[in-house]
Specification:
It is a single chain. The radius of gyration is 25 Å and the shape is globular. A hairpin with a 5-residue loop joins strand 22 and strand 23. The strands form 7 sheets. It has a 5-stranded mixed sheet. Strands 11-8-7-15-26 form a 5-stranded parallel sheet, covered by helices on one side. It has 11 helices and 26 strands. The chain is α/β, with parallel strands linked by helices.
Length: 425
């Protein structure tokens, strides 16, 4: 059983119950909303052995500060009056909660509880796989057309946009928008339209032919249509500092971020078509560009190379490779670079870094044959149909020339209109 308590009840709860899991939540908090149904279902399963309670963080600040809670949601586990296991925050997965709950109980009790958990089957009209701009746009159109729609994502809504510092080219906003806020507006609009969200979940199986998706190991969602909108990921270098400074000195999108480096110096990692062609765009803003390429030559097309070498702002370092990214005391970026011919290490101080070493479609979950291009992106027709009947694909996961928020939204719009008409027929 799940109950809400106040901070004055906490000590009494702690002394009266051997096992407690405490959820500090906030209102208008997408991660909290994503956690709520998981927390409730686990309370039903484990409630006879573990006390499930929730506390409104903003209304109980004294306890939150005492326990060092600084974000919502935050789950804290207590066994015999002492905190146990790691705290869980943000987009919390059900399996991570279960992992800690199971450590609080004897093995035989865990087996007994798990034996009672029954598989669930949910029916819907359309499943949208992926909650980036393309998936959210599709969801909005479908729900407004009275098509029952469930949107599924392993992360929280928004896709890559949530980690974009500012978006200044999305129509309808005079001032640049923070990426996470633009994502928030889209997801709230989708919820208001009637889209059902199942986010921060584990996607265990996707059966495109039969239009079935299994999440969190126990719920099978069956649909008439599926729209794939799982996006693409920038290929990373897996170097120290890359994750830490993503969105804070390191970028993967010139269109998104070049304008923030007006009269500043930048480093570009890569020497292929994307890196060289994007350097032309970045050169409109930056005062100096250092391009780092590990090979003895650039691999972009000859015309792009000629323009690159003719640009006085661009200095190309061939046979060099980055080894790490760091921040200086004055908040500039420092790139450690190795000369591959001599082994010499040097440090390049710059204002920002752009990484262009390619992208990859997020299609690891696809076990069925679906037509793709040479790079693994899903092929679609003008109505966003894939080669599998009843399955659409939109956004960055499809084979196309340009990948922007607006193009993903356009794809989602087309797919949803066609999908709704086919369901009605």
């Amino acid at each position: 059983m799940l109950e809400e308590i106040k901070q004055e009840d906490f000590e009494k709860e702690l002394s009266a119950n051997k096992n407690i899991v405490l959820d500090f939540y906030s209102t208008e908090c997408p991660p909290c909303e994503a956690l709520a149904p998981k927390f409730e279902s686990l309370a039903d399963s484990y409630g006879s052995e573990i006390r499930f309670v929730k506390i409104f963080r903003q209304g109980n600040r004294e306890l939150a500060e005492k326990l060092g809670v600084k974000s919502s949601p935050t789950l804290i586990f207590f066994k015999d009056g002492e905190e146990t296991g790691a705290r869980l925050m943000g987009g919390i997965r059900k399996k991570d909660i279960v992992k800690t709950l199971d450590t609080m109980l004897p093995e035989e009790k865990v087996a007994e509880i798990q034996a009672k958990i029954k598989p669930v089957v949910t029916q819907t009209d359309t499943i949208v796989l992926g909650a980036g701009p393309g998936g959210l746009a599709a969801g909005i159109y479908l729900a407004q057309a009275k098509v029952d729609t469930i949107l599924i994502d392993q992360a929280l809504p928004g896709g890559q946009v949530t980690t974009t510092h500012q978006v200044s080219n999305y129509p309808g906003f005079i001032e640049p928008q923070q990426g996470f806020m633009l994502s928030h507006y889209m997801s709230e609009q989708a919820k208001e339209a009637g889209v059902k969200f199942k986010v921060a979940v584990d996607v265990n199986k996707v059966d495109l032919k039969n239009k079935e998706v299994v999440i969190d190991g126990f719920e099978t969602i069956k649909a008439k249509k599926i729209i794939i909108s799982t996006g693409a990921s920038y290929r990373s270098l897996n170097l120290p500092g890359e994750k830490e400074f993503y969105g804070n000195g390191i970028s993967y999108c010139a269109t998104c971020d070049a304008k923030y480096y007006h009269d500043k110096e930048v480093v570009i990692i890569g020497g292929g078509n994307t890196a060289v062609e994007e350097s032309e765009f970045i050169s409109k803003f930056a005062s100096k560009i250092t391009m780092i390429q590990q090979l003895p030559q650039l691999t972009a097309n000859k015309a792009a190379q000629e323009r690159c070498y003719a640009d006085p702002k661009i200095n190309v370092l061939l046979e060099h490779e980055p080894r790490g990214f760091y921040k200086t005391d004055n908040d500039k970026m420092m790139v450690k670079v190795e000369n591959l011919k001599t082994g010499e290490m040097k440090e390049i101080i710059t204002d920002g870094v752009f990484v262009f070493v390619g992208m990859k479609p997020n299609t690891e979950f696809l076990n069925e044959p679906i037509e793709r291009d040479d790079w693994g992106y899903i092929k679609v027709d003008e109505d966003m149909h894939t080669s599998i009947p009843g399955v659409f694909a939109v956004g960055d996961v499809i084979s196309k020339k340009y990948r922007q928020i607006t193009t993903a939204v356009g794809d989602g719009t087309i797919a949803s209109i066609v999908c709704a008409k086919e369901i009605d027929n």
